[in-house]
Amino acid sequence: MAEKPKKPQKLRARLPRGLADRGPAEIAATRAMVEKIREVYERYGFEPVETPAFEYTDALGKFLPDQDRPNEGVFSLQDDDEQWISLRYDLTAPLARYVAENFDQLPKPYRSYRFGWVFRNEKPGPGRFRQFMQFDADTVGSGSPAADAEMCMMAADTMEALGIPRGSYLVKLNNRKILDGVLEAIGIGGDEHIKQRLVVLRAIDKLDRLGLQGVEQLLGEGRKDESGDFTRGASLNAGQIRDVITLLNFAGWGDIVDGSNTHTLDEWEGLRFSVNSTFSAGIQDLRQITKITEASGYDTGRIRVDNTVVRGLEYYTGPVFEVELLLDTKDEKGRPVRFGSVGGGGRYDGLVSRFRGEPVPATGFSIGVSRLQAALTLIGQLGNKPQAGPVVVTVFGGEIAGYQKMVATLRKAGIRAELYLGNPKHSLGQQMKYADKRNSPCAIIQGSDEKQQGIVQIKDLILGAELASLEKDRDEYLKKQAEAQFSCKEDEMVAKVQELLQRRGVAWG
Amino acid sequence: MAEKPKKPQKLRARLPRGLADRGPAEIAATRAMVEKIREVYERYGFEPVETPAFEYTDALGKFLPDQDRPNEGVFSLQDDDEQWISLRYDLTAPLARYVAENFDQLPKPYRSYRFGWVFRNEKPGPGRFRQFMQFDADTVGSGSPAADAEMCMMAADTMEALGIPRGSYLVKLNNRKILDGVLEAIGIGGDEHIKQRLVVLRAIDKLDRLGLQGVEQLLGEGRKDESGDFTRGASLNAGQIRDVITLLNFAGWGDIVDGSNTHTLDEWEGLRFSVNSTFSAGIQDLRQITKITEASGYDTGRIRVDNTVVRGLEYYTGPVFEVELLLDTKDEKGRPVRFGSVGGGGRYDGLVSRFRGEPVPATGFSIGVSRLQAALTLIGQLGNKPQAGPVVVTVFGGEIAGYQKMVATLRKAGIRAELYLGNPKHSLGQQMKYADKRNSPCAIIQGSDEKQQGIVQIKDLILGAELASLEKDRDEYLKKQAEAQFSCKEDEMVAKVQELLQRRGVAWG
Q1: Which of A52, A145, A297 sits opposite B408 (nearest CB)?
Q2: Would the CB atoms of A295 and B405 count as touching at under 8 Å?
Q3: Per CATH, the architecture of B391-503 is what?
Q4: Do A83 and B53 touch (CB under 8 A)?
């Protein structure tokens, strides 16, 4: 027996992990969010500037948290000229390159904003995306605490512009100098301990997820997780660990009495670390920042010092901030969800300097748009309802060109409309099923009889759907049934459709 | 002598070739364009859907023009699981994957639009970008000529919505079947000649750039370009070349008499190739399409058959279209620029089928947003004028918090405002220079005297700039000088600034 010819293998339609398609509701929600954020950032005097998706790998630097191998976490490839290029993993590192490259032409301080996709080559995991959107604002060329204060206030204003009520978010403020001071005080300051300090930083950054005990393990020899994987710790001794934990226990959440951060800062200053000048400078920064925010009416209900905040990115050098959503809500399966951080930022005085060879202070704030959008969707702040679809002009034999002309007439009047482009032999029922699936407000019907009379039938699909839920034979039903399909002259079609759209409250946008 | 310690090498701030940063005017122009295109596409009944930047390399397929090595032209890298992934080189191939993956849930025909960045790993060259923006619409699941006709009409409507006057653009329409028919007729039909046909296609696609003689060389043995590089040709014999050139000479530009494409199509049908059924089917398609477009009022001044159009992408199977800008204009250096194609598309009946193993007809249209934007900017259709900057509150000693509060007050009233965040010891002159560079409409000044009196000075920077061009000592000058800086009570500041903004016609957006 001869072998059967092999059937050619079909290509499988699928996406690489950590990537997602986006439908109409999601796209509309992102657009609405982006517009609101932009409005706030522009009110704060920031102007747009955008950089491309790729940068030279060395220009981006290696500042990602949780990455032990070089280049891990970043999508990189070698260019034709052998140089390595990478997709941006955030919007800050590319901005630093941009400012350095255009330094002399830019106003200083240089205040700019941008949003766009960033890429991280993360390990697989639920909810871990490899492409997501950020919206950043940065002030480069100012070392003033007022610049940091502004970022915190803008973060708060942005949350409220997005419909998150006061009390449901918190901008948490800390200073890398405070932790640095403690680490100096316990004997791991200096360049020779730079790696160890980084491990400490990453351990503290996991406080939310692992709790104090987990952090304690990571400050010591290390920690074995549920899967049995072991993460090496910072190898601090027992006394050193106790000191760091003391600091973390002093977050100062308990003693807010009059909306001022002063009391918490006084307490921190009372710690024995304050003999260390770095620690003490960190406190002074925070005093200046909170003095400004509080004078502008932002009390501890909105902006609050919290020394558990460290931010994972390596490039921060001073004040750091994080926006936390305080909403507890349930996911689709009824499980409680705590959103945690939806944005953050801080001072990165070293990032532009890498290119310039001179100090260039800078501070910035970044919103995780994709993450925040997921949160807002869950609390119902973003519409998930599909928009009304287009008016569908159905097709029954005859000349396609005639039907197409009706469509053109509707479109010319600004009405979203389309010709049924499926098989023109499909029944009215099949064409209506399509219109329903498109969420169309109405359909236009013209058979040969209507054509001869110069009329069209207009079928109100919104009313039609209501009818389906009414008891038949009642007066209301019969009245509505008459209203749900009616005829008019061809040249009245536009006006009648416009009336129907208004009657049904259809407004596209 | 001991060696000097090496100075650490400064990182160079630069972008990889073929990538560009974008400033405020460019970003605003893209936004305006995208909004207008979206409005037209939605009026045509298309709904948004977006795919991510990456796809599996095999899902994208290899359809790029001008690429001889596999994978050339595409940015690809190997994922952790050894599978190859690539950045999308257009928006059509990813859509085909999306439709195939979600086939059962989608309405059919499925009409969708999307815009976004695409990436091509092009060889270096002026004006050749490796990241650019496209805006696409596609109808998947309809083989109707009405679907193709709609793409052509939408292309025309979009150009006009973007401010390109009728007569300054042309949608050119052709059919791959016509060329295929000719190639069958001259003996290079069939699977065994697939590569040769592709070389012919690419040769014709270069007609604009190389002229008939260059195409003739590429149809034959090949062509040596100015740099001495040799491109191998399709190796057609003299008779075959003559036949293809005959076709190209029959573009039919000369005989437009009444705005109808019929005459041109009649002429094509008169060619001896029309005994070939593929050729003849191609003509019939075009007759149906142009019948629809002409019935809807789109004459040959807007949509015209032209058999020199082939489109470079391999995946087209039937009608193809291209939008050409007919504007001749000059670049910054006064050299004439002809923009050529700013968009195009066609029918790609095989692209979704690769995944489905069943026929899925589809047609689409794509605007090269970046390319069109360059053209519109050059003809002055897009504003290049920078927007007004924010109101700048200047700083003179005293408490920063007090100045910041003024800024917060202005912002709360919806006024774009910022604190001067440069060195607070900078002189008024230095701070004004910054405000000028930001294009600020006015600045707020409060020294210690003003503070004691509870007043602020408002400096009108727009009027100030006008003053600089007036002769001094004239009445007008003195009057304006008084108007250009005035004082008011602190609590009148918002109202006075709002008046000034209105007086100077400052409207942010």
Answers
A1: A297
A2: yes
A3: 3-Layer(aba) Sandwich (3.40)
A4: no
| C-alpha span between A143 and A269 (Å, rounded) | 23
**Residue A355 to residue B13, Cβ atoms within 8 A:** yes
Identical fold for domains A24-181+243-378 and A391-503, yes or no, is no
User: ∠ CA A395-B48-B116 to the nearest 5 degrees?
Assistant: 135
Domain limits, chain A: 24-181+243-378, 391-503
Contacts of B406 in chain A (CB under 8 A): none
Distances (CA, A) of A74 to A63, A130, A311, B52: 10, 10, 18, 17
| Gap from A401 CA to chain B (nearest CA, Å) | 5
Question: Which burial class, exposed, middle or buried, applies to B303 when counting CB atoms under 10 A from its CB (0-12, 13-18, 19+)?
Answer: buried
Q: How far is A157 from chain B (nearest CA, A)?
A: 10
- Out of A15, A139, A292, the one facing B404 most closely (by C-beta) is A292
Neighbour count for residue B12 (Cβ, 10 Å)? 12
Cβ contact B119–A44 (<8 Å): no
Residue with tokens 């700048």: B392
Q: Which residue has the tokens 């909170």?
A: A290
Is the Cβ–Cβ distance between A256 and A304 less than 8 Å? yes
- Nearest residue, CB atoms, B295 vs list A47, A390, A405: A405
State CA A73 to chain mean position distance: 19
Domain A24-181+243-378 has what CATH class?
alpha beta
Which residues in chain A are closer than 8 Å to B42, comparing Cβ atoms?
Answer: 416, 508
Please answer yes or no on whether A11 and B48 come within 8 Å at the CB atom.
Answer: no
Q: Which of A7, A43, A115, A396 to mutate to test the interface with B (most CBs of B within 10 A)?
A: A43
As a whole number of angstroms, the distance between CA B79 and CA B73 comes to: 19
CA gap A96, A94 in Å, rounded: 5
State yes or no: ipTM above 0.95.
no
Residues B263, B255 contacting (CB under 8 angstroms):
yes
Judge: B101–A15 Cβ closer than 8 Å, yes or no. Answer: yes
* Rounded Cα distance, B63 and B96, in Å: 13
Phi, psi of B471 (to 5 degrees): -75, 135
β-pairing, A455-460 vs A391-393, is unpaired
- A with B: how many residue pairs have Cβ under 8 Å apart? 269
pLDDT tens, residue by residue, A49-66? 999 999 999 999 877 665
What is the helix, strand, coil percentage profile of chain B, to 5?
Answer: 40, 20, 40
Q: How far is CA B271 from CA B185, B248, B274, in A?
A: 12, 12, 6
CB atoms inside a 10 Å sphere around CB A331: 10
Asked if A485 and A459 count as a contact pair (C-beta separation under 8 A), the reply is yes
A240 three-class SS: helix
Residue closest to A368 by CA, chosen among A111, A155, A96, A149: A155
CB burial of residue B334 (10 Å; 0-12, 13-18, 19+): exposed
Residue A437: HSE in the Cβ half-sphere, 13 Å Cα cutoff: 15
Nearest residue in A to B352, CA atom: A13
Evaluate the omega torsion of the peptide bond into residue A109 and state whether it is cis, within 30 degrees of 0.
yes
Structure tokens at A474: 């009642």
With cut-offs at 50, 70 and 90, classify the pLDDT of residue B313.
confident
Is the per-residue pLDDT at A424 higher than 90? no
Question: Is B85 within 8 Å of A16 when comparing Cβ atoms?
Answer: yes
* Start-to-end Cα distance in chain A: 64
Phi–psi pair at A324, nearest 5 degrees: -110, 135
Say if the Cβ atoms of A45 and B356 lie within 8 Å.
no
Contact criterion met (CB < 8 Å) for B295 and A11: no
Summarize pLDDT for B143-202 with one digit per residue, the tens: 999 999 999 999 999 999 999 999 999 999 999 999 999 999 999 998 899 889 989 998
Q: Considering the domain B24-180+246-378, what is its CATH architecture?
A: 2-Layer Sandwich (3.30)
pLDDT at B481: 83
